[in-house]
Amino acid sequence: MEYAGLVGSVVLLIWLALRGVDIVFAALLCSLLVIVTNGLPLAAGLTEYFSFGPLGAFTFAGKFFLLFASGAIFGRIMGESHAAAGIAMALVRKLGNERALWITTLACALLTYGGVVVFVVIFAMYPLGLKLLEQADIPKRLFCAALALGAGTFTLTALPGTPSIHNVISSVALGTDLFAGGWLGVIGGLLMFAGGIWYLERQRKLARANGEHFVAGPNDHISNIEEEGGSYPHWVLSCLPLALVLGTIIIPRLIKMGLDENSMAAAGTAMDLLRFANSQPIVWPSIALLSGSALALMLFPAVRIHALQVLGKGTNDSIMPLINTAAVIGFGGVVTRTAGFEQFTGFMVESSLPPLLSMFTSVSLVSAITGSASGGLQIFMQTMAPAYLEMGIRPEVLHRIATMASGGFDSLPHCGAVVAMLTITGLTHKEAYRDVGMITVVIPVISTLAVMAIAAVVL
Fold first, then answer.
1. Of these four, 163, 206, 388, 458, which has the most CB atoms within 10 Å of its CB?
2. Cα 85–91–94 angle (5° rounding)?
């Protein structure tokens, strides 16, 4: 009964998401199914495990509200000021319409590899991407897939050195550095990027052959100022707020890397600021986004004259993505409290599979059940990683392959990041998930298995 309820709830949540059922209701319903079938206390299941536990919905919402709100404000200002459109038009003139998906992927990859949080990248890139899509006449579903490729695959789990939470979790748990298993990560990252770009370009050509066109959503704000006889802000001016955001996020990390202990001691107050910046993965990017928003308000009269209304609309834009994502995270919080989940982790460690394959299966299934790569990886590292080290897997190999494995089956339809991206872009699972699933599940899984095979032969 317990296993049936556990597996059935995950399957039901995926089915409801694909059917377009409201994801908050779906997450609550499936959480209730887990609670009832697994004999969990009803009150604690709803108010603690789902709502306020370590993986609770409102724990997540409270932790990430400022980041979502500041990201949505920045995105709204960049859209209504026509700054995003100005950058997009400059890129189109330089690289051509047909490179819109390449531009999106590479821009997102650069941002996330530099340490910018995925949600920030989606908010920042969306208004720019809308104009690119309109100019290139590419279906919106492929833009969503390009966002996923650049912001949610190889730069988060494969490439060595990335400051992503996934890479940090493995580093802290195993005592390795962020570049552990570097050559395995480079191979995996190249496979993910090449496979993703091949798929996107193939789908773009098929869409054009089938007569698909770009269709804006009801809440999309696309600048068409040229039709009114106006002109877009110069692209250099338009890039300044974005450059301020990125610089504010990345520069403290770069400065700290370049300082030795004596320099740190002499830096005084400046060093305190650097420590604060590098210890705040949510607050500091939020400050960066709000700084970029303030600069954009000063630079662009189109939004300065009604600044309070734009700020209010931007804040409101963040609510549904935040709540939808939090509800799915809360479902994962309930699942991890079940006896069946604990028994599963023990079964995988004791299985007769080869260590690398057993480890891949364990990380993948835990991430799939929780719908979270970071959550699944955290649980794996806390409960199962020591056993795999005892089996003879080298720490740096375990670091890289486990991190890559966490970024595959985590992106099933009930994944919080997928739900947030679809909500932000105004698309449904039915419209966009086939492409997103290929980019974030199928290709990363194949790439990770290929890296495992190489590691098994070479090592």
1. 388
2. 145
